Each structure stands twice: as structure tokens, then as C-alpha cells.
Sequence to fold (592 residues):
Amino acid sequence: MSQIKEITIGDVAKRSADGEEFSGETMALNIGPSHPTTHGVLRLMMELDGDVIKSARPVVGYLHRGDEKIAENMTYNQFVPYTDRLDYLAPLANNVAYAIAVEKLAQLEVPERCQAIRVLCCELARISSHLLGVGVYGMDAGAWTVFMYTFTQREKLYTLFEELTGARFTTSYTRIGGVARDIPDGWLGRVSDFCDQVLPVLDEVDKLLTRNRIFMDRTEGVGTISKEKALAYGMTGPNLRASGVDLDLRKDRPYSGYERYDFDVPIGTRGDCYDRYLIRGEEIRQSVRIVRQVIDQFPDGAYYAEDAKKIFAPQKAKILTSMEELIQNFMIVTEGPRMPEGEVYFEAENPKGALGFFIVSKGGGVPYRLKIRGPSFCNLSILDDLLPGHYLTDVTVILGSLDFVMGECDR
Amino acid sequence: MAKTKVLERKPLSLAERTYLPQIVTGLKTTLVNMLRPSVTLQYPEERPVIPENYRGVPTLVKDPNGREKCVSCQLCEFVCPPKAIRITPGEIADDADTAHVEKAPKEFDINMLRCIYCGLCEEVCPEEAIFLQDVFSVSGYSREEMINNKQKLYELGGTLPDRHRKWDKKKAAELQGAAHH
Fold:
């Protein structure tokens, strides 16, 4: 038992007169797992000296669902709904990344139309994710209104997703070897209309935040991550690019036909919170550019790989009228798509960073092992290095700027 | 190498340092948005427009002849990722006019507490018997209430026109003595 000692003002005065260090005792502070600034269920164990953070330790795992183990017990197509729940702010991008990973294992090429639909999905998901990222970041820093404007836009995007996939949020849109359904009539026009009206809103957000001194005072020079550190901690996505590294998998290792589209990779100069904010704003604009190019050169053809008879289930009309296709349907559903043996790793440039799937297959329709590399998990690992030295009030700003999602961090 | 765009920043001007232009811009933005039409949907008084092919509550449908389409092949039960569907297969009476359809479900339960509305059941169904329709809001006072049984599922589903007339064709072929078994 520690002894309680009464200290009087006189003691303190005497101590200071003696020139003793005034460090005092540090205080332990827990933020989360249930706290609005942690954007989910991140818990931060911090040691504070007054208002200054001495040490910080992120504790993750509160949203662990065992997705990787679940994947071992179901066929490749059945796992698609689970990928929605990784980065739940961009489910379409996860669906696409997973499908491409499994197709890489099967060495399957999907038709151009399918690729175009997937690029469209990825970029719309990126816009939706960054709209939320920027809006919520404004809110974290005290600018509440920005959130309302970006959320209105995001809602419009969700209506587009709803038309395309049947669900606003949990899209489950891709299948191994294609997508669940073709784009509806007139949908591309509506996406184009959305692009036309989202840019003025971005300018509005720009006006409210980008040159706002209050916002800049809170973000500039706060949470600076150097190039070397960002690379050392395995950061990816906008957070890495904000530190000045021009790594973008869409450019460096193009997939799904990204090499056909012209876009710039924005990079930051200092790697502070303000840079991370700027990057997201610019990435939305670049995504709009890509979306417009995809719509302009939208290819005809099938939305699924027609030659992959043992992977992509036959069309409904065939299943109902032809015995061969009916059997094929039963086989693909019960045994899963026919996959070769082997190991494959695929990374896609998701809104939050590089989402990777490592699949070990022993043949058959069920993965032997499926490992997910969640970008948010790696991005968060820098926290115990980044936070010390900052004020407690900066925690909100730094966490917001990293724009992580616990769904994919904990999986 | 990737084509990059470096995001440079300009130092704040003297005017910007005073916070004043920002306050004016902020007020202007708010005023402009006040005059724009409202985007809020006053749910539940106003209801959202549900697009075609929406994935709402899964239901069982009957064909225009009032016949159960489900033949309890249990493929949906198998594919359901969260294992929300439970089917007990049953026989059809020999003298029923649906006797040429081999089976029908005796019990068909969908646990709406488990269902994730992924639509895989509808996608795999070889009879087009299960559909995710436009009901998007479900609630109940107990766990039992949230399990949709066969009767409830047919009530929710109603009748949908056949997209592909499978059994009628078979029946007609059988009547002509050219049944392909």
C-alpha cells in the first residue's frame, strides 16, 4: 500500500525554491474503445505529463471477427459479403480487390466491360470514402458544417450504389470471374451527373477549410511523418503519399485496366495532418477524372468471363432450362469455383491504402488459408511513435487525419 | 514513374491571417445553402424510392397458378453465408396438380436476426422461388418473432410473374408423351 502524504502549498514552494524538477507524476489516460474521435473501437492507452503525451499505445482487436478463419470454411463466392465489412466505408473497392486476388489465383482474365465496371466501382468508392474522410476530419477539427455538405454528396453516391448493387452499404457486388449483375439502364448518365455536381461542392469545402486559419493552426506541423518513417512503418495510401512518397498501386502495378486512364498521383510536401487532408481532397478530383474517362470509353461485351464455366455460375435462363447448366450451378455453389493449387498475393490501391489478400489454395472451391493485409492496421502502427510529444488535443486531429477504419484493422 | 502532382501550399496572406475573409466565406456558404432546396428525407412520413432489384427482406414467391415454386433443393440453405435459412423438405401429395414438381418445403425458416441481405440465395436458386424484395425495415418484440416461417415468407413474397416458364413446359411435354426424365 502506498502512503498518502499531504502536501501543502508551502512544500511545493519550498521544492521549487530548491530547484527540484517539476515533472510530478504522470497520468494514465484511456481513450476508447468507445469514443467518437477514435472512429470506431480503437483504444489508446496514453501516459500524460500535464497536457503532453509521454507515451501512447494503441490497443486493437475490439472488432475482431475472425474473418480469415471464416474464409477457410466457405467457398470463394460466399466470402464476398464478408469483404464488405473490412473497410466498410468503401465496400465496393474491397469486393473488387478480393475478386481480382482470387482471379489471379485462377489465372482468369475478365472482359474489358467487367474491368471498366470494377474501376468505376473502385473510384466511386474512393470518392465516397474520401468525402467521409474529409468531412469527418473537418468535424474532428471543429468545423461541423463541412461534414453536412460532404455527407449529402455521399448519400447521392449511395443511391447510385443501391441502383447498381441492390444495397446502399453492404454491396457484395463482385463474383469470382465477374460482377453480380450488369449496370442498370441510364446509370452511367446518372454517375456523370453526380460527377458534375460534386466538384462545386468540393470547391465549397475548399473554401471552408483549405485556407481557413483556424483549421490550419490545428493541422499544420501537427503529426508530421517523415518519408523514411512512413515507409518504415509500412504505411500506404494517402497517408504515405502525404509524406511525399509517390506510391500508388494503380500506377505502379496497374490492375483491372487502370493503365488505360490518365490521372495524377497527388503527393504532399511535409507529411503533416494538413497534407493528409489536402491529399484526400485532390484524390477525389482525380477519381472524378478517372470516372469520366471510364464513362467516355465504356466498352461493350459481357460483364463476366464467359469462358470460365467452372468458376462463374451460368445465367439464370440457362439454369432453368438446361440440365447441363443446372448441374453446373449446383457444382459451383456447393463445391465452389474450381481453383488450381497455389499461392497468390494481390494488393489493390484502396481508399485507405493497399488492401492485400494472400490466398493459399490446395485446389477446390475453398481457400486453405486467406490472409488479409488491412491498410488501416499498418497505418495505425505508427501511433506509438507519432503521438508522444503532442498535446492531448492533437490526438483527435492526428487520428482523424490517418482516416482509418477499424473494420479492416481488426478483421 | 508515376505522374505526380505535388501539393504545394502558399503562405497565408495578411488578410487571411485576420480570420475575417474566412468568416465571410463561411457565412456566405451557409446562406447560399439555406436557400437551396432541402435534401433531407422526412422518414417515416416520406419514404425513399426503392430501385428495381433492391435487396430487401428475402421472401418466397408463388407462380401465377398459385403453385409453390420452391422445390426444397436446399441450395439457398447451403450457400447462405450466415446460415440464416433452415429448410425441412417435404413431399407433395400424388394427386395434387403440382405433383410433377418433385418436392416442396415442409418448413422454411429465415432468421432475420442472422440474414445479411447479401442476395446469394436469390442468385443461386434454380427455381426463381426466393426473391429479395423491397421491404427494408423489420422489427419485432422477440427473437421468435424475427424468424420468418414459410407462411410469413409466402405472405411477404406474393406472386411474381414467371421469368422463365420451366414447369409448365415440362408438364406440357409430359402430356404430349414426350417427357424427358
Summary: Chain A is about 50% helix and 15% strand. The mean pLDDT of chain A is 87. The longest helix of chain A spans residues 112-140.
